[in-house]
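Transcriptional regulator
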Amino acid sequence: MLNPWLALAAGADPRERAVAVRRAHADFLTDGTVRPGVRPVVAESWRRCAGARVRPAEVAEVDMSDADLAAHRVQHPLAQVMPLVRELLGGIADDGEHLLSVCDEYGRMLWVEGHPQVRRRAERMNFVPGSRWAEARVGTNAPGTALAVDHAVQIFSAEHYCLPVQQWTCAAAPVHDPRTRRVIGVLDITGGDHLAAPQSLALVQATARAAEAQLAALGTLPDRARLQVLGRDEAVLHRGGGSVRLGRRHSEIVTLLAARPDGLTGQALAWELYGEREVNPVTLRAELSRLRQLLGTFLASRPYRLTQPVDTDAGFVADALRTDPASALAAYRGPLLPESEAPGIVGMRRRLLGGLRQALLGAGEPALLRDWVATGWGEDDLEVWEALLALVPAREHAVLTARVAALRADYGLYGAR
């Protein structure tokens, strides 16, 4: 059986496959139909790209200046293993037909190395240091898709969502923090159709594992900043061995920026904080000035962004929803900044709460539903009470039926379903 992460079956003709995938890609862009034969990992990526409204003619944007890129490289943990990465993958880059690239956890290119002529060709699609290759930005591509699904993957020819990239084939593998297993970046090799061979994916996977092993041996990964926002109106930021409690407006600003590592313009941040309210721009600049006095270089501008990745308790819950609803529920300490009325925060709070509820309902485990309705934020959740009633033994129905009936009456409904 074909490895689903490999682009070609053994013995397949790359030219025939490229023609078939190009037709399938054209059909998808026309009416959203996925032809048989498109790999599931590619079909799912195309759907994500369509949902994110990625334009098929899109090219990557360069969103880091040379100075910011240089500082980010020095601080990034993958800088410590670049000699190893070059030793294992540098030969491929030096052969004149491929490029070696390394991205951070947000899909920003940190290093792109290889023959100058190949690099010049790749520059036409902004495959350059400082550009952003996240899947939601520039469509299906090996680095971006590897980050999106947290798995090594090949992307072949027209499997790329955006047309300017379809002359290339690439293989990429994520690199994880050996302590926490969180993704900290991705390694990639990019070149011609011959990179669709199984050996290229195996090589980049092996290099990623070697990089993780070296990081574990070095034991020098810096502690990431952490932000607690669940069940509290004032966030607590932990970094550099210390903690600081943020005021309510500063809590909203840091939470919004932590969720958007590429930053927000002043106008976008004002909208997330104030919505349609008319607020003097000086008000926001004053808040940001006071926050910068508190956080120093941790807060940057143009656009406004945090200069280091921040793990949030809300982010952990969101990540756990996909695979482990029990862990997500255990980590959920209450609504995100519950008293905040900032539109951006309200949206984040509703999405997280809704996602958690749906994960619990989908899991169909009475113990998890019981834990939810035992909380202050879940005790009046009629839908969960009804789901619990449908799952428990008949001997427990009397108490639960009474609770469901009481809630339905409170909501102006009558009779239990």
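thats it. Residues 223-351 form a domain with the Arc Repressor Mutant, subunit A fold (CATH 1.10.10.10). The longest strand covers residues 183-191. bye
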